[in-house]
Amino acid sequence: MADYVGAVDQGTTSTRFMIFDHGGNEVARHQLEHQQILPQAGWVEHNPTEIWERTRAVIQTALRTAGLGAGDLAALGVTNQRETAVVWDRRTGHPYYNAIVWQDTRTDRIASALEREGKGDVIRRKAGLPPATYFSAGKIQWILENVDGVREAAERGDAVFGNTDTWLLWNLTGGVDGGVHVTDPTNASRTMLMDLETLGWDDELLSFFGIPRRMLPEIRPSSNPDFYGVTRASGPLAGEVPLAGDLGDQQAATVGQVCFEPGTAKNTYGTGNFLLLNTGTELVRSRNGLLTTVCYQFGANKPVYALEGSIAVTGSAVQWLRDQLGIISGAAQSEALARQVEDNGGVYFVPAFSGLFAPYWRSDARGAIVGLSRYNTNAHLARATLESICYQTKDVVGAMEQDSGVVLDVLRVDGGVTANELCMQLQADILGVPVSRPVVAETTALGAAYAAGLAVGFWKSTDDLKRNWHEDRRWEPQWNDEQRERGYAGWRKAVTRTLDWVDVD
């Protein structure tokens, strides 16, 4: 058998390809950013063709750097930004419109109308999600209603939809020349169109958005022993490699963190933050603003579910300091700047650029920096930015404990922001529990590789994967209870200042 497994990690700001060995160790990687298209306030788009070109490039470069070819890969997995919607012509392979990104808020009127019409409770019951701009269905409806010719093409079966996993799987397996139109339950569960119990597209939910069923991909297991297909020799791998794993990015990170037992949880720090708690084969419905979602489905086994707290803006708030304000030259500088002060100086920053996600779900909210005096400096703002990442996580952890009754004794963390050691110390201080980072911090790609490798027998069982997990660093809380309570009270007060800023019909 080949010695390695590959994973495409198609994220919000970049696409990477990583290669892992049997021990779950990184062998090679290459990563390229893609353009963030911002046509107007609240709109966020990507060019799907650019994403596919970047995917081709990172695969080829990583393989070349490692001196490997397609024959060295036992399987390939895909993981992706989940709710970002692509609609394209299956005959030509051309997108009808840019991908509408999960952060985009143009569909706020669609979401509000669903609530007014009493459809929100049906969506919550069947899909486990609140009507929100975050999810894919409203984006598909917007394209159908606003891009000339798409509605007619969809009715003919020419216009098809997918999140970016489906777009890449279709292209990797041949595109217009026999590409497979598939997704997995973790991605399908982010659309507002899939019934969580049946793992099938639901006609009533489709009718709410006016979406023809024939637009939608086939739903197959996240780890698929029958494969989704094989890569084409004419593609970036230049050989036939089984495509056997597909997981939305946050579920992939949960698998990469080997959170296979009910009650285990991980938090991924990327563009946004995403905390998932494995609830096993039990479907737990949230009463506190969390999402019920599919965690993974391996082969013919029952699906495993999770509670998720999704936070829109965390790492991208640090990018905002760099790109829009210019007070840092790179993300790493945020730590050095924030260390210049001992506390936030009374400043709180709530980065509700796209409204507030879990547990608030307020599309009318917008970002606010509060508590400023002439005493404050850019160092206080940098520290407040890091604290905002941690306070938003505390909001979600509190809701999760209320829903599940599970009190965390440790939080497993991964993603780019975990390289910021001050931020991770603040997270332990604000939560009051230890924070643990694994040796392989890029667990999203690793989880996709695990799903693909399990499908082809590269790894025999999840026990193999558990043996691969090793802790790299642990942060213990240093704040006392009074500091923690005072800080969180200030945060909750700051959150109230962001509400009712945008009028939503």
From TrEMBL:
It catalyses: glycerol + ATP = sn-glycerol 3-phosphate + ADP + H(+). It comes from the Bacteria. ATP binds at residues 12-14, 271, 315, 319, 416. One of its GO terms (biological process) is glycerol-3-phosphate metabolic process. InterPro entries: ATPase_NBD (IPR043129), Carb_kinase_FGGY (IPR000577), Carb_kinase_FGGY_CS (IPR018483), FGGY_C (IPR018485), FGGY_N (IPR018484), Glycerol_kin (IPR005999). ADP binds at residues 12, 16, 271, 315, 416, 420. Glycerol binds at residues 82-83, 134, 249-250. Residues 4-256 form the Carbohydrate kinase FGGY N-terminal domain. Coiled coil: none annotated. NCBIfam families: glycerol_kin (TIGR01311), PRK00047.1 (NF000756). PANTHER family: GLYCEROL KINASE, SUGAR KINASE. Key enzyme in the regulation of glycerol uptake and metabolism. Catalyzes the phosphorylation of glycerol to yield sn-glycerol 3-phosphate. Belongs to the FGGY kinase family. This is Glycerol kinase.
